[in-house]
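Usage

Read records sequentially. Each one opens with the input sequence:
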Amino acid sequence: MALSQVQCLDDNHVNPRTHESKPEFFYCEDQRLALEALLQDGRDAFLKFLEARGLRGFLSDPEIEAFAGAVEPYDPNSELVSESTDDGEPPLSLHYWPELSDKSVPQMDLGWPDSEAYRGVTRTTVYAQPPLGGQAHIKEVVRKMIAQAQKVIAVVMDVFTDVDIFRDLLDAGFKKKISIYILLERTALPHFLSMCQRANMHTGHLKNLRVRSTGGADFLTRSCTRVRGRVGHRFMFIDGDKAVSGSY
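and closes with the structure output:
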């Protein structure tokens, strides 16, 4: 749930109007309504709404196309009914359902290093692609960090298809007993599974490996449609005291 939605639950909270010239401005109600017009009636309706309300165009052409192409019908009841449910069984209600509500995927069940102690001065190194001044290739840097890991490696990727890096992670978990966590964008999961088939995995690789998929925030409209957000980040944590982010 977004912070603005949480604040609306507070009876004492008054949402002040903030002008778009202020740094703390994020969005306004008119912009939200304009976005609903785009998702329900298309680009022309969106532009007419902007003109009628005197709003400045706040979406670029690629963003408008992305929103229009990602909108999908939304039915809250469909998420509570299993696809394998027999026609004779009654659908689940929207009320509290312990079998669905009380069971969750274990978080960090392979452990996480304690990094509260002081580790020394923080250092940052910037690498370029192509390499500059004799620097190592970014992929080489990533693979060396994986090889030097001792406790845990956590990876967050929007698209993960590099089989060499994936094999390094599998070897670290299987040979060095390092905990490996991978969090992926859900829409790119088929590409990750295709890579797994090329990586010659075996059951021993799964013991210290945890893979989950997620997505960005959802935008729900009053017309029962939805735009599902996507993960757009790439970073990796090593042993709780090293991090790498970027692309190559």
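Summary fields computed downstream for this record:
- The chain has a mean pLDDT of 83.
- The CA atoms of residues 62 and 94 lie 37 Å apart.
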